[in-house]
Amino acid sequence: MLGVKTNRLEALVLQLFSQFINIYSEYIIALVLLLFLVAFISFIIVIRSLNRTKKKYQTLLSGVGNINLEEIILSNAQRLNCLEEDVKENENKLLTLDERVDSCLKNPSFKRYNAFDGVGGEQSFSLALMDDNGTGLIISSIHGRDDARTYAKTIVAGKPKFNLSDEEKAVLSIALNSKAKI
Question: Residue 64 and residue 81: Cα distance in Å, rounded?
Fold first, then answer.
């Protein structure tokens, strides 16, 4: 008996569905056509967008002239490697130059003075040239009425090997304290 009721219920549902479709068939067809039209327009838009993207991709891959994107990237990678090597080489050269500059005579001090009474114009002078380690020399030129004498005295680690005059001590002190950075 349960099977008969189920068949009747199914028949009733099919009959109601059939009546619904018969009554609203024009609206259902219009709705299906509208959905198809929207889907078709969406499909056309997606195809156009895909074609534009494909053209851009092909242009990108074709590169400039006879060189494609892959060749451009590889060429740039090689150039970058060369530049990195150049930078390392320049860093090594800079370190070498820094070491050499430390031993250069680059901390100068100069003083003009009158070495003797009665001789004017401050023609005598002392010049100290030191490296960063306090090693260098002092050049002094003493001018008198009848002659001029020039002396060179070495300095090692801030200490003179010979006795210094007051003017030479002054330029040595200034040169040792200046530590000019080049």
Answer: 22
